[in-house]
Design brief:
elongated; Arc Repressor Mutant, subunit A; Four Helix Bundle (Hemerythrin (Met), subunit A); 67% helix; three-stranded antiparallel beta sheet; 237 residues
Length: 237
Amino acid sequence: MTAIPPAKAGSAQETYSQLKSLIMSFELYPGSRVTETELAERFGVSRTPVREALQRLQLEGYLTVRPKQGCFIREIDIEEIDQHYQVRVALEMCAVELACTHMPDRALKELARQWDPAYQPADDQDVESMAARDEGFHIALAEGSGNFVLADYLQRVNHSIHIIRRLDFTEDMRVDLTYIEHHAVCQHLLKRDVVAAQQTLAQHIRRSQQAAKTITLEQLSRARSKARQPQRGRPAG
């Protein structure tokens, strides 16, 4: 695989990465308005890379543009996220049932090898890398079901919950547990035990949901408190 060169200072890629990091950490609070001019001054760049970064983040669902109002950091609706997870569980239970019939041993053994806790790679402590690999596991099962419409719907759900789902991997314990649970699902499928596979996967998803939800609420609370604190040298109120 060809190595991706580091982003140049002031480039659209670097601006995108910096801006996304601020959104993910809630330093840019959900629902707050952002402008090209303010961000350009903040990052010390022209408005062009900022504009490109904003367009990319809008396409990825991190920003919303309201006519005649401007660009806003996407709000996080915990109730809506919970509903997405409900749909996700239903889709993945169907995927597992079909994969139990259609997914060949060869593919399942390879997936099990990739998620064997004994061979967990060190770079999976990186949140974005681990989040991408985790999504890949679930999509692999959906595609293994032979129903690519189902896999497409699951991909859309993943897109909707990505902003909090990645927070599940900010703790090493959660990364380790993901390996254990993914490997267990593969072992159940290799035995063609659909009930055990579904139970293990459902428990895994709901545990992940609760962990990510808890971290999200904690981060939102801290960000909200920080936003309410008066700036130094300026009177409150």
